[in-house]
Amino acid sequence: MFTAAGFEKTFEYIQLFKEGLICTVALSLFTVIFGFIFALVLSTMRLSDIRPFRFLAIDKEGRELEDGFPAMLGRFNPISFIATVYVEVFRATPMLVQLFIMYYVVLADVQFPEIKILGFIRADRFIPGVVALSMNSAAYLSEIIRAGIQSIDGGQTEAARSLGLSQFETMRYIILPQAIKNILPPIANEFVTIIKESSICYTIGVQEIMYAVSATKGATYRIAEPLVVATVVYFCLTFPTSKIIAYCERRMRRGDKR
């Protein structure tokens, strides 16, 4: 049950929730930045056309085989295969498992600097949390980016190549600027999702909002009131952000209609 005394005790630790709010925003921002960079790499890998065994699928007359093992081997793209496996694995496994593997296994022996970011965020907990969230987010963002790139008319690529632009220049100056406009809304929505998913990082001691709930519970022996405060804080973070995203989407659509 909720009581006035319970809320009074909870508000005595409101500083923990303020620090948790700052930590959550920082965690989400770093995750989106690094996740987007990694997602660009993954989407490029998935869209690549590197087939080292293509020569095995060419017959004596120079035609490409369509059936059989040589044809399948000739179509094999190891770069795209690696990116596809990564995306499928990270999308098909729980975020909590990925976080624990990253913190307790992959980065267990890494000596992080014993500093506190902004005076209260422990780097040795914060950095693994960012890495795990970024790797997970990249798997989803890469699919968004890939879909955005594939939504651009292929005729523009052909026109750019006919003008003498290289594949890299075509991607940089023609395809990506248009694709980014299409994928900005879903990327912004991913930021809202990350804000909520970052709550899982309290399990490794990252001082975000749910960590503040746990600390307040241990000090006051109350759980209902700290959870209500956490709910309000998350709502104040995500609701305005989602409304800003919706406004930007409407503005972008209005520009397309002109």
Q: Any descriptors?
A:
258 residues; mainly alpha; MetI-like fold; two-stranded antiparallel sheet; 2 strands; elongated
CATH homology superfamily name: MetI-like
Low-confidence stretches: none
Structural domains: how many: 1
H/E series: HHHHHEEHHHHH
Itemize the secondary structure elements and their pairings.
Blueprint: H1 4-11, H2 14-47, H3 69-75, H4 78-92, H5 95-106, E1 116-117, E2 121-122, H6 123-150, H7 154-162, H8 167-197, H9 209-220, H10 224-257
Antiparallel strand pairs: 1-2
Helix pairs in contact: 2-4, 2-6, 2-8, 2-9, 4-6, 5-6, 6-8, 7-8, 8-10, 9-10
Describe the structure.
By secondary structure, this protein is mostly helical. 74% of the residues lie in helices and 2% in strands. It is built from 10 helices and 2 strands; from the N terminus they run H-H-H-H-H-E-E-H-H-H-H-H. The chain has helices spanning 4-11, 14-47, 69-75, 78-92, 95-106, 123-150, 154-162, 167-197, 209-220, 224-257, and strands spanning 116-117, 121-122. A hairpin with a 3-residue loop joins strand 1 (116-117) and strand 2 (121-122). Helix 4 crosses helix 6 and helix 8 runs antiparallel to helix 10. 27% of the residues are buried.
Give a nutshell description of this structure.
By secondary structure, the chain is mostly helical. It is built from 10 helices and 2 strands.
